[in-house]
Design a protein that fits this description.
single chain, 203 residues, alpha+beta, 2 domains, 13-stranded antiparallel β-sheet, transmembrane helix, transmembrane, LPS export ABC transporter periplasmic protein LptC
Length: 203
């Protein structure tokens, strides 16, 4: 009899839970919906801080990379932290934190870095400005504030003062140019012009 009473009590408990649990679940769901209806959209957590209107007005590319081959067979790679394409005809594309790598057919590598750059697609010229630094695998380093590049001819010129260091010492000049050797053997010529001063420091 005791076992029978225990079984009947268990059955009543199970039957009560079958009714109580669904009702409890419905109560929780109704509470959830009531609370959700009172959410203030002004205090909702934003999903992004991106200014969409700014992106539409001023489209930009993040970490773009451009690679190509120049007329004399050298390879040129351009990278930037951010670039903004020209939005109106006649205006140049711009970029910040720019790195250019020029590798000649003979394997000579030249790395050029600058704070900013502007590209004129019509003339295929690139102007690098702000802490321009040129590092050559031939152990030469050149510093200047502005450098103009003719991408078609892979030639670089600076019309502002430059300072260069290398195995023979330090050179300062009013301007400089870095261009392919006319002999066409894949080498480059670095030429200094205007009040050139050499401090000879042989090693």
């Amino acid at each position: 009899m005791a076992g029978r009473r225990a079984f009947d009590g268990w059955s009543r408990t199970v039957g009560w839970l079958k009714v109580a649990l669904p009702l409890t679940a419905l109560g929780l769901l109704s509470t959830l919906f009531l609370v959700s209806n009172r959410i203030d959209p002004e205090t909702a957590i934003p999903y992004s801080d991106i200014d969409v209107q700014s992106l539409v007005r001023e489209p930009r590319l993040t970490k773009p990379v451009y690679s190509g081959t120049t007329a004399n067979g050298s390879t040129l790679t351009l990278q930037a932290l951010e670039a903004r394409p020209a939005t109106t005809p006649g205006n140049p594309s711009t970029a910040v934190d720019v790195t250019a790598t020029l590798t000649s057919r003979t394997g000579l590598r030249t790395d050029i870095r600058s704070n900013a750059a502007s590209l004129d697609a019509a003339t295929n010229t690139l102007r690098l400005t702000g802490d321009v630094q040129i590092d050559s695998s031939a152990a030469y380093q050149v510093k200047t504030e502005a450098l103009d590049a003719d991408l078609s001819a892979s030639a670089f010129t600076s019309s502002v003062p430059v300072q260069a260091t290398g195995p023979t010492g330090t050179v300062t000049a009013d301007s400089m140019s870095l261009m392919p050797d006319p002999k066409g053997d894949g080498t480059y010529l670095l030429v200094f012009n205007g009040r050139v001063k050499l401090v000879y420091q042989p090693k």
